[in-house]
Amino acid sequence: MVQRKFNINGKIVLGMAMLLLVIFALCITAVNREDREAEAANPVFLLNGTYTYVAQTAVGSTSGSGSGSTITYGSESVVEIRIREDNYSGSYSINKGTILSLQKYNIEARAINVKSHKRFVLRKNGTVIANNTLSGSSTILLYSGSLTDGTYDFEYEVEHIQGSTKVTFTYLFDFKADSTGPSTTLKNGNILINSGTRVRGSVTYTASDPSGLMYIYYKNPGDSTYTKTVANYYTIQNGASDGTYYFYAKDKVGNSSSIESVIIDNTSPIGKMYLNDGTLVNSGKVTNKSFKYTATDEGGIQGLYLKRPNGSYGSYTAGTLISGTNGSYNFKAIDSVGNESIESEIYYDNILPIVVIKVGDNIVPNGGVIKATSISASSTDSGSGIEKMEYMPPGSSSYST
Ligand SMILES: [Ca+2]
Ligand SMILES: [Ca+2]
To answer: What is the number of structural domains in the chain?
Structure first.
C-alpha cells in the first residue's frame, strides 16, 4: 500500500499546494488521471494498527487484543489514532507498512472516551527517538514535526474506565516516511557524468528509490513535453540527434528527482584551409603559397593538429601560416567531446620545374647557340609534377603551350 502525494524536492509550501497542483496539471500533461487524483488528496490517515489490553476489575484482570484505527472496548470507542498534516480534507485508512510522504507528521490520539493518555514511544529504524510520559484525557498530538526518510514504529498506551473496570491499551503501528525523490545517475558509456555535461556517444540515465520507482520522464531535443517510461533506465543511443536531453524520475510515493540534462554532440568540427592571401581552398589543393587552417564546432574545439610530410600529427595553432618542406600536409580538428573532423590535405611545392632542351640526344646548355633543324624540350618536376609547358618562338612576344 502506497500513498501518493505530489511534492517538489520536499518543499511544498502548504498554502501553495492547490496552486501548484493546478500548474502541475496544466504543464505536465503526461501525468495520468490516476496520479492527479491521488496527488490532490491530502487526507487524515486513519491508522489501521493493532492493540492489546489488560482489564482490571476488583476480582482480577483479563486481557485481549484488537485492531483498527479506533481502539474499542466492548461496544465503546476509546480513542482514534491518526496521522495528518496541518491542513487536510477527508480521511483514508492505511495499514501498517504504508509509505507516506508528508511535509509534517501530526500523530494524533483523538480522544473519544479516554481516562488518561499514558505513554508514547516512537522509533526510527528500531532506535527510540521519542519516549514521552503522557497525561490528560482530551485529544493530543503524540508527535508533531517532520520525519526524515526511514521506517518508523510507535507504541501508545492509554487508559480507559468502564464502570469499575480499568482498561489499559497498548497500541502499535508502523509506517515508512519517504520525502525524497529517486536517486539517479547519468553515464556516458561507463563513465559517470554530471548533469549538463556535453558528450558524444551513448548516455544512460538510471533511477532507483527505496519506495520503488514509478516512472522515468525524458524529453529529447525538439520535444515539447516529457515522455514517461516504467523502465528504471533510459538510454540515448550512439549517433542520436545532437541537442539537450532532459530527465527526471518519480518514486511510487510521488516524490520527484530534480531535472537533469545532458548535451549530446555527435557532430564533427568543420575545418577550413586558406592560402596566405586569404583564399579558401579545398582539400587536395596544390600550392606554392604558405597556408593555414582553422576549424569550428558548435561545442568548441579541443585541438587542431597538423601532420607534416613524412611526419605524424602534432598540435597546431589556428591560423599559423605553414610552408617549408615540399610535400603533403594534413590538418584535422577534434571538438571538445572528441569528435574528429575529416582530414584536410594540401600539397606544398615551391621547387621550380626543370626544362631540358635537346638536339637529338644532346643536351643544350641554357643560352647555348646551336645549329639544328629541330630541337626538343622536356620538363620535369620533383614536387607536384608538371601542369603545362610553354615556349616562345623567335619573333614572338608571348608564350604558348
Ligand atoms: Ca523516495
Ligand atoms: Ca561537435
So the answer is: 4
